Amino acid sequence: MSTPTPVPIAIIGGGIFIKEQHLPAVLATPYLSLKAIYSRSLKSANETSQLLPTSHGEVELYSEDSGPGKSYKDLLARPDIVGVLIALPIIVQPEYIEAALKAGKHVFSEKPIGPEVESAKRLISYYRSIAEEKKVTWAVAEQFRFLPKYVWGAQEARKLGKVIGFNFRVFQLAGKDSKYYQTEWRQKPAHNYGFLLDGGVHAAAAVRLFLGDDLPDTVVGYSFLAQQHLAPVDTLSALIKTKTGAVGSFNCSWGTTLKATEYSIALENGSVTVEGDKGWILYKDGRKEEKDFPFMRGSGVLEEVEAWGKAISEGKENPLITPETTLGDLELLEYMLRSGDENGQVKKLQLQ
C-alpha cells in the first residue's frame, strides 16, 4: 500500500521543544499532516493543541489520564496514523520508540538516540530486525546537520584537502533560570552526564560533519563540574585523533562564564571557521573569504522534519538522520566523557 502524502502523523510529547520547534516545523512542511497529539497528561496535550491555527483540521488528543481509548497504545492502534514524532525525556524515550516501531509506525525521535551507546545499539538491532517486515523507518533528529552555516563549513572544508588539525569550542552558561533547566528531568537527570550529554551531542554531530571522511578514531578527555546545579559534570575538554592521525581539540561547557561557539578546521590548503553566525575561509596563500549567516529561528529543525517527511513519502531513509549516523555522535561524546571519568584514559571508538 502506498504512503499517503502528506503523511498523517502524531506528535508524542508536550515539552518546550515540541511547542516551540517541532510543532511549527510539522505545520510548515507539505510532507506531513498532524492528526493527533499525545502527552503524559491531558493538560500538556491540550496546551500544545492550543498553539494550532484555527484553520487547522481536527487533532485528537491522547494522554495517560484521558480515560479508556486514549492511551499511547490506543493511538498506535490507529491505522490512519503512519508516523510519530517523539520528543520525550532521554531515559523514557526508547520504550516509546520501540512500541511505535512494533506497531508499524515510522518514527522520528529527538536526539540523543539513547541514554548511552549500549542501549542504543540494542534498539538499533531491534529496529533493523523488523524494519523490512513492518515496512517502517526510524530517523533520529540532529538539526546541526541541516544548519546552513555548518553545511557550508563542511562543504568548503572538503575542497581544501586533507585534515591537519582542528579546534572546536562551545561555551555557554545554563543558569538555574534557563527554561530548559526548569524541566524536572533536567534538574534531576536519570541519564548519564546530565545537561552535557543532552546539549553536547549537537556539538559532537557538528564535529563529525566538519571532519567528513576523516572521522574520530581515539579520544582523551577530562571533565569537571563548575556549576553544582548541573551535576554530575558540565565541562569537557578533550583531544580527538582522527583515522588519518590528525589531532585537534574539543572543548564544551554549559557551566562557564565564557561565551563562544566556534568550529575551526585546518586543511592542507587553508582553514575554515564558523563562529557564531559568521564564517570564513583562510587560504594558504593568504586570501580570506567571509560569509554571514543571519539568525533564523528554528533553523535546522524545519529542514530535518521536512527531510523525514520527504523520506517517508519516497519510501527510503535520509542518510543524515539514520540511527547509525546519530549513534556515532553519541559514541564520540560518551567516550570523551567516559575518558574524563577515568582521568584521561585513552578511548578507542568503534562506531564512526
Brief summary of the model shown:
With 352 residues, the protein is of the alpha/beta class.
Chain-wise SSE layout:
Layout: E1 7-12, H1 16-28, E2 32-39, H2 42-49, E3 60-63, H3 72-76, E4 83-86, H4 93-102, E5 106-109, H5 117-134, E6 138-140, H6 148-158, E7 163-173, H7 184-187, H8 194-211, E8 216-224, E9 235-242, E10 247-253, E11 255-267, E12 270-275, E13 278-283, E14 288-292, H9 301-314, H10 323-341, E15 347-348
Parallel strand pairs: 1-2, 1-4, 2-3, 4-5, 5-6, 7-10
Antiparallel strand pairs: 7-11, 8-9, 8-15, 9-10, 11-12, 12-13, 13-14
**String of helices and strands:** EHEHEHEHEHEHEHHEEEEEEEHHE
| Biggest β-sheet strands, sense, barrel | 9 strands, mixed
Shape: globular
Spatial strand order of the main sheet? 14-13-12-11-7-10-9-8-15
Provide a count of the helices.
10
Indicate the CATH class of the largest domain. Answer: Alpha Beta
How many discrete domains?
A: 2
Name the CATH architecture of the largest domain.
2-Layer Sandwich
Strand content: 25-35%
Look up the CATH topology of the largest domain: Dihydrodipicolinate Reductase, domain 2
Structural class: alpha/beta
Uncertain runs are none
Calculate the terminal CA-CA distance, rounded to whole Å.
Answer: 36 Å
Strand tally is 15
Average pLDDT rating: 95
- Radius of gyration based on Cα positions: 21 Å
Helix content: 25-40%
CATH H-level name of the largest domain... which superfamily? Dihydrodipicolinate Reductase, domain 2
Domain Gfo/Idh/MocA-like oxidoreductase N-terminal: 9-127
GO molecular function: nucleotide binding; oxidoreductase activity
Domain GFO/IDH/MocA-like oxidoreductase: 156-272
Pfam families: GFO_IDH_MocA, GFO_IDH_MocA_C3
